[in-house]
Input
Amino acid sequence: MMLGSLKCIRGILTLMVAVFCVDGCTEPFDAPEEDFEEILVIDALITSEEKRQEIHISNTFLFGSTLQTENGAVVSISDDTGNNFVFSETEPGTYVSDVIFGAQPGVSYSLSVNTSNGNSFRAGPLSISQDAVLESVRGVRSTSENGQEGVAILATGFDAEGEAVFYRYDYEETFQVVSVANPSFDLVVVSETPPILERVPKTREESVCYRTQLSNEISIATSENLSESRVQDFQVRFLPKTAFELRSRYSILVNQYVQSQTAQTFYEDLRDFSNIRTVFAQTQPGFIKGNILAENTNGTRVLGLFEVAQVSSQRIFLEYDDFFSENDPPEFIRDCPTEQYPLSSPILFELIKSGTHKYRGEEPTPSAILYIVSPRGCIDCTVYGTTEIPDFWED
Output
């Protein structure tokens, strides 16, 4: 599964008017709502991977409100060989190609978006102009700029033809979540009036799960002014040794995109915008210009980038013990205190009924059996992921 091109746009630029907290001040600065401008945001990346391509369309929204997806648009990609790829809206604001296809070298592609209110937007024609191989992805023990020990994920890309100049990286990480306890039984409510709990055999697996997270940072590199078209050991991800992701087995899929100078400039501007911490910063990027043009609109502006990119990917697996000899793996994702109650306890009944706690074990005492419970997330890993083992997973 590849990541979309402008994931950060939906997290950064759709908040065009926000409530900023000025460094050193105790009172927030409220941007006036009358200055808010609704802008269409288009995330359109077509890659060389053979898959159902995705395009995401939304609108800018005020800080504190929900994402405003653009629904009911007519979206298509056409090429100069006569093909037209129609995209259907599979969920609000997400448009997926009806057929599987990948961008081919030497073929030009154009984007067409017609919104439900009659506005039209176009981009292209664009084609894949350079090719590069993601030669390696590796994890190394490292120390961050702020002195944290951890694991750096490094990528090396190379174009033997010497034509690729601008590179971008993103990733998809998947890791195991192993519950702190795996009891064979559950406590269930068998009657509410009167309140009665019963210990029964567990009926589902909830001790080992898999959680997937997508990158949310802009990682760009260039071989400009170098003797060869190579990006050597570019840091794509840094995991502190205390990161929960390293507690058990960890995997990362790194994607390398070879992009145009236009795309490189766009992402540089986007990165600069996202790094501004105050409205009074000396550097203000203004409106970030992409390559999507508005046609036949009522004055609506558009923000986004249409990309046609060659992509190369590699996946690696690693574990904490691969890098650190001390037997001190990261702590669980949350605290897992225990509480003990007799089966007839009203408190125990409410904890189980509400679903906040689950059975963990028992403690016999001279007067009664005490039932041990912990917060649900300590026993049931499906709070954080899925028990379905990914197709790519290797133990």
User: Anything to note?
Assistant: The CA atoms of residues 51 and 266 lie 25 Å apart. The helical segments are 7-12, 261-275, 346-354, 376-379. The radius of gyration is 26 Å. Confidence is low (pLDDT under 50) at residues 1-6, 12-33, 276-285.
